[in-house]
Every structure is written in structure tokens, then in C-alpha cells.
Amino acid sequence: TITVGQPCLVNEFHAPELNFHQVDVYFRCTLMSGLLRDDWQDPEGVVHSRRFVSRTEMAGLRVKPDSLAAVAWQDPDAPTYDPLELLVR
Q: Which of 42, 43, 65, 77 could form a disulfide with 11 if both were Cys (CB 3.0 to 4.6 A apart)?
């Protein structure tokens, strides 16, 4: 069970050569009870794994958008809008 807070980041990805544009809205969520289950699957098939990480662990992961750690840990200079970023393949 989680509670979902207000949006904390809007990010845009694009791949001009594919005529692709995607807008992501990120929300700060809090785990209220239960555990993450290994048998969970994203109904859209986009998310392939999920887990809780520390900031140190996140620094060693490949994550997008680039501003995600700053937003997650509420750095004073963290953006609320992360402008158009090339899609990573």
C-alpha cells in the first residue's frame, strides 16, 4: 500500500529521428505497508525492474532523467521541470 503525493517532476524525452516525444510525470510516493513483490509486472511493459535504493546506490545506476536523484532527495536546486532530453537507447 502506498500513498501518492503531488507531482514532483515533469520530464520530456524525445528521439527526433523517430518523431518520438514522451512526457513523464513523477510523483513522490510513500510505502505505507507491505513489501515490493518480485512477481509484479508493469501492465504497459515499460518498467522492467524496481527497488528502493539509497542515494549512494542510485549514483551507481543508470537512471533517467539525469535530475532524478536531486528530485528524489529534494536537493535545494532540484528542478520541477527537466527540459527536453534525448531518448537513451
A: 65
Q: How far apart are CA 76 and CA 14, in angstroms?
A: 27
Distance, in Å, from the CA atom of 50 to the CA atom of 53, rounded to the nearest integer, reads: 9
33-64: per-residue pLDDT in tens?
A: 998 887 888 899 888 888 888 999 999 998 88
Q: Which of 75, 37, 36, 38 is nearest to 55 (CA)?
A: 75
- C-alpha torsion 72→82→22→16, nearest 10: -140
pTM score, whole prediction: 0.73
Neighbours of 61 (CB within 10 A): 10
